[in-house]
Predict the 3D structure of the following.
Amino acid sequence: MHLDADIVDLARNARRIAVLTGAGMSTESGIPTFRDPDNGLWAHANPAELATPEAWEADPAYVWAWYRWRGVLMNRVAPNPGHKALATWAQRPGIQMTIGTQNIDNLHERAGSRDVHHLHGSIFAVHCAHCGEPAQDTQPLPTTDVPRLDPPRCPACGGLIRPSVVWFGEVLPAEPFLKAQDAVLDADLVLLIGTSNSVYPAAQLPFDALNAGIAVVEIGPNETEFTDFTSYVVREKCGAALPALLEAIGS
Ligand code: BV8
Ligand code: ZN
C-alpha cells in the first residue's frame, strides 16, 4: 500500500494523537455502516428514522427490538486489524492517544484501547426513558431478529428502559464530547477514520483541529464531507491502512 511520505512523517513524529472514528471503523468487523442500505440489518429499518425519540415514542417495542438485535450482532463480531493497530500504537512509549467515537459498539475497548469516549453513547448501557436513572441490563438478548420486544421497566419509577445512545435531535452528553474536543485541540495529529463526517456536532471536531492549525489525516475508501478540507488522505480501508501506517513509522 502506498502511504504519502508526509503522512508517515506526521504519524512518526506525533506524540498526542486524537482519533475520531465512525461506523467505517467497524465495517470490517462485520457491523454495517449507516449508509449500507443493502445490508440486512438496515433492510427493514432506516437508521435515520429509527434512531429518534419520535420512533421510540411511536413504538418502543419496535425500536427496542432493533437495538437488542444490533447488540446481538455486535457481540458476535470482533475488533478488526484497524482497531488493534490503534490499540498497539497507543501502547508505544511516549504516545498519548484519545479516541472519540461515534460508534455505539465496544470494539475499540475490546481491542485494548484505553482512552475511548462515546460521543453518541453505548448500546451496552441502558437507562430509564422516564426518570433517567441508569439501569441494569438484565433482559436476555433475543436469539433471533424479532420485530418487536417489550422494553423492561425501570425498578425506580416503572418507566420504560431505553438504550443509552444519543438519538437524532437529542443533545450529546457533555463529558465525552468535551474530552474528545480537548484531545483534538491538544493533539499534534488528528486521525479521522471511517466517518462520512455528516452528523453534527461530532462532525465539527475535525474542523476544530483545522482551526487550531492541527493536521487531520482522513482514512477511508470514499470521499467524505471533510475530504476537501484536508491535504492528508489515505483512500484505503482502515483494516489495511492502520497496520500499514504503524509498520511504516517503525517501532
Ligand atoms: C443534535 C447513535 C441538537 C444511535 C447516532 C441539518 C444540518 C446540520 C445538522 C442537523 C441538521 N438537521 C439535524 C441536524 C442535527 C443532527 C445531524 O447532524 N443530522 C445530520 C444527518 C445532518 N444531529 C443530531 O441530531 C445530534 N443532536 O444535534 O442535537 C440539539 C441541540 C440543542 C437541543 C436539542 C437538540 C445527535 C446526532 C447523534 C445521532 N445518533 N448514533 C445509533 O447508533 O443508533 S448517529 C449515527 O450515524 C452514528 O453515531 C454516526 O454519527 C452516524 C453515521 O455516520 P458515520 O459513522 O460517519 O457512518 P456513515 O455510514 O455515514 O459513514 C461511514 C464512512 O466509513 C463512510 O465514509 C465510508 O466510506 C467509510 N468506510 C466504509 N468502510 C470503511 C470505511 N472507512 C474505513 N475503513 C473501512 N473499511
Ligand atoms: Zn425510571
Q: What stands out?
A: The two ends are 19 Å apart (CA to CA).
